[in-house]
Amino acid sequence: MIKNYKLIGLFLVILINCTLIACGNNKYNVNISNKKVDKEITAKEVIKENNIDTLDVVNKLCSNEIQNRYFEEQGNKLAVEYINNLFSELKLEYVFGTSYLHEFIFENKDCTTDGKMISEEVPLNNIVGKISGKNNKTAIIITAHIDSFGKGVLDNASGVSVTLKIADILKNSLKDNLPNYDIIFCITNAEMQRFVGSENFVNDIKEKYENLYNVNIDCVGLKTGGPLALKNISNINESENLYESLKSTLKENNIEFTDTVSTEKVEMTMKINDGVSDYVSFEKLGIPNIHIAQSNIAPLPEKQDDGVETLDYENLNKLSAALESWISKIKFD
Question: What is the 3-state secondary structure (H, E, C) of 206-220?
Answer without folding.
Answer: HHHCCEEEEEEECCC
